[in-house]
Amino acid sequence: MILWLPILLFIDHLTGDFIPNKNDYDAYGSKTAFNDHFLVQVQNDKNPSTFLLHFAPYENIEESLECFIYFPNLTNHYVHSVGVGRRQTQTERHFFFVGESVNDQVGAFIGLVKYNGTEKESLPCSLNLSYHLQYLHSSHYQKHYILGVDPRGLIAYGFSNEFVLIFEAQSTDTLESWNGNLTWPDASFVPHAVDISEKFGVIAGFIYRANSTNQQYDPVIYLINFNSSGHPIVVDEYKPVATPGTWQALLTNSDANTYSAKYDMSASINENGDVLVGMQFINRVFLFAVNITNPINLTY
Ligand SMILES: *[C@@H]1O[C@H](CO)[C@@H](O)[C@H](O)[C@H]1NC(C)=O
Ligand SMILES: *[C@@H]1O[C@H](CO)[C@@H](O)[C@H](O)[C@H]1NC(C)=O
Ligand SMILES: *[C@@H]1O[C@H](CO)[C@@H](O)[C@H](O)[C@H]1NC(C)=O
Ligand SMILES: *[C@@H]1O[C@H](CO)[C@@H](O)[C@H](O)[C@H]1NC(C)=O
Ligand SMILES: *[C@@H]1O[C@H](CO)[C@@H](O)[C@H](O)[C@H]1NC(C)=O
Ligand SMILES: *[C@@H]1O[C@H](CO)[C@@H](O)[C@H](O)[C@H]1NC(C)=O
Ligand SMILES: *[C@@H]1O[C@H](CO)[C@@H](O)[C@H](O)[C@H]1NC(C)=O
């Protein structure tokens, strides 16, 4: 058995299989999402991955308002993130998720679960559920594959360095995807966090910079709009620059190409167009203002 180990590691290295670290619950993305009506939480320690659905109210947690959703097609799949529209109505009880298959070549996926029972209907909700799943078979292992959901919960966007995709709640049989380099101004951009509002979105991540003496990853924040075909397009950017002489200025983040919790980021937009972006590796939260009637500038 000991002889096999280096060989397996070698093969793994060659194929770039995704072997998630399931001991860290929060790794690779947002495992919980909620709005005023329900909360969803993914449990990747189960195989198939399972979702816990919990209906409001959230005070005095009642188990009768809770159920587990077993999605058989998610055997040997790992869910990076779950997402809901923050302004879905009480009768729109559906959620999105993105992830990758583990140890095989099915690729990246995006999915949707809809619950159409009434609230008073008896749980567990194994009935009244419909499942939708689309694969991007051509994708390789994505260290960072994030999910953005529009406030009404109609459209979900999948973002990675390699691809960008659009998946709609009303037409789950189709998946629109294209190469990431058509959207990212810098083809090395690796997205770490996103939020989508009615009119615009904000995505934070890293871009790669190399010269003859060193290589490093620099943080960048993109403002996105949507063109008439609904595709996200980058219209402005902000690159945090550390003050010379501070510990932040000495960072090269040269290991930011592999997943590490310290490089997790956050993005959040409110209804006035105020934007918060959090970057814990530099101990910073950035506040921007975006004009919601003309969202073309990310004003620091
Ligand atoms: C939910 O499932 C139950 C049991 O199959 C069924 O009686 C009920 O009509 C369903 N509700 C909806 C909204 O489909
Ligand atoms: C609810 O979903 C189930 C399963 O997909 C479906 O059979 C049923 O027609 C749906 N009911 C309503 C009211 O949409
Ligand atoms: C789940 O897998 C089965 C068998 O491969 C397939 O027929 C079905 O369409 C899949 N369901 C979804 C929602 O992808
Ligand atoms: C984008 O990536 C694809 C696939 O890697 C490549 O074929 C294409 O030349 C790239 N386009 C640009 C503009 O870099
Ligand atoms: C390479 O980048 C480092 C850090 O940004 C910089 O200090 C150095 O001068 C650069 N070297 C060259 C040859 O451009
Ligand atoms: C929207 O942007 C995409 C690139 O992501 C481009 O292919 C498409 O042509 C654009 N549509 C319009 C109407 O400009
Ligand atoms: C926002 O944009 C609109 C349209 O361009 C403009 O009329 C308005 O003055 C802007 N608001 C602010 C606070 O800059």
Automatic annotation (TrEMBL):
Residues 1-16 form the signal peptide. The keyword Signal applies. Keywords: Signal. This is Uncharacterized protein. It comes from Adineta ricciae. The lineage of its organism: Eukaryota, Metazoa, Spiralia, Gnathifera, Rotifera.
